[in-house]
Write a structure and sequence with these properties.
Blueprint (H helix, E strand, L loop, with lengths): L2 H7 L2 H5 L5 H12 L10 H19 L11 H42 L8 H8 L3 H9 L1 H20 L15
Length: about 180
């Protein structure tokens, strides 16, 4: 296929749709059918290609027009899927909130246990007995360990803020070095 064929074939759809100017139409027809008296001869490959395109266009014209708008029930199905995803997201958020609340409760409980008189640092046996968790609670604490670690990090940042402010919570001194 030569350069002429490529250029002419690029015009086939416009030719079939009647969108070409008169001179361009004549050029396509001369290339495909040949000139008057057979000079120059027509291009058999382009003639075959143009015939196939014309038949394809004719077949497409026989197809029924699709109805305007979405298919029946489409909007209802999309709305249902959106509602299902929202519900699933709400459930995930609620579960995450419940896990966080349980973790905070455990951390708060552990903090209170440390302050009880029978759980002094000298009495480690009593402390271990007071802090002992049942297996289900222990599994929950382990599952939410990342939350506990984040809380510890926040406490450390608060401690650093107090030190930067001049208060030394470890020694119990204020900015002026008084107790």
């Amino acid at each position: 296929m030569g350069g002429d064929c490529e250029r002419i074939r690029a015009e086939f759809v416009a030719y079939l749709d009647g969108e070409l100017a008169e001179a361009a139409c004549a050029e396509v027809e001369t290339h495909v059918r040949g000139g008057p008296g057979g000079e120059p001869p027509g291009c058999a490959a382009c003639r075959r290609e143009l015939g196939l395109l014309a038949r394809t266009g004719g077949l497409l014209g026989l197809m029924p027009e699709p109805p305007p708008g979405p298919a029946p029930g489409f909007e209802r199905r999309v709305a249902r899927r959106i509602a299902e995803r929202r519900r699933a997201r709400l459930i995930r958020v609620a579960l995450a909130g419940a896990a966080l609340a349980a973790s905070v409760a455990v951390v708060a409980g552990l903090g209170l246990l440390e302050r009880l008189p029978w759980a002094s640092p000298r009495d480690t046996g009593a402390r271990e007995a007071a802090v002992a968790l049942d297996p289900a609670a222990e599994a929950e604490v382990i599952a939410n360990l990342h939350v506990l670690e984040a809380l510890e990090l926040v406490e450390n940042v608060d401690l650093l803020d107090e030190i930067e402010a001049g208060d030394d919570p470890l020694l119990g001194l204020d900015e002026e070095g008084k107790g």
